[in-house]
Amino acid sequence: MKKKGYVKNYRKKSFFVYFSLRLIVILILLLNLFDRNYENVFLCVLTLFLFLIPAMIEETFQIDIPSMMEIIIFLFIFAAQILGEINSFYTLFPHWDTVLHTINGFIMGAIGLSLIEILNDSDKVAIDLSPLFVSIVAFCFSMTIGVFWEFFEYGMDSIFKLDMQKDTIITEIHSVTFDEKNLNRVHHLKIEDVVVNGERWDYGGYLDIGLIDTMNDLFVNFIGALVFSIIGYLDGRSKNNNLENWLIKLKKRERKNEKVA
């Protein structure tokens, strides 16, 4: 039996990106291994595994992921794990996480639209979905993935004491908690002085523990999902097939015609 390698599934365009990024990750892995930074070594190993997932999915489910989407997925993984985590881009560049969540919303919108198109084109399903309905489902799919990711971040922060939901410094509090008469009146308090464990805090405000970061992530995910859904709707309505390089499709199976003598 001929053994199939997952890497062989990648096309020439995406394979160059795959090979280049994989080589960089291996070099970073070796450097961190020499420095005995095993946390970064684990992130590098995880990244190498994530690079294989598109090919594994193609082989398992017999689908065809376009080269353009594969390349963006590779770059997204590299930007999130290697640049974001290991090289601290999340803290060096304030909007790095925002950009990634926006791209994620766009990509998940493309995947959601692809799933519906595969169902729409299937001979086993006797339905014909309108472009508007397909776009709405793609949007909802993207937002659902974004919500699940925030659940994951919250779980990691709660269980393993991480800080995936990044904190935000706020200078004002608007709350009904401080209403002594319990009349549900909002009290506006400007934070001028913060003391933590008896020591004055010089960061200029109070520390929000992830709520603002979560809402910002969901908002930019919403933007990415909405943009792709609108593009998908317009493309489906005009039937121009401009999203051909973005949509996942089922692999065409070659059928041999048997001649009956």
Q: What is the count of β-strands?
A: 8
Major sheet characteristics:
2 strands, antiparallel
End-to-end distance? 31 Å
The 3D shape can be described as flat
Overview of this protein structure:
By secondary structure, this protein is mainly alpha-helical. It folds into three domains: 7-91; 94-166 and 209-241; 168-204, no CATH class. The protein has seven helices and eight strands; from the N terminus they run H-H-E-H-H-H-H-E-E-E-E-E-E-H-E. The protein has helices spanning 12-34, 38-61, 67-86, 89-92, 96-121, 131-160, 211-238; strands at residues 63-64, 168-170, 172-175, 187-190, 194-196, 199-201, 206-208, 249-250. It has a two-stranded antiparallel sheet. Strands 2-7 form a two-stranded antiparallel ribbon. A two-stranded antiparallel ribbon has the order 3-4. Strand 5 and strand 6 (199-201) form a beta hairpin. Helix 1 (12-34) packs parallel to helix 3 and helix 2 packs antiparallel against helix 3. The protein starts with 11 loop residues before the first helix and ends in an 11-residue tail after the last strand.
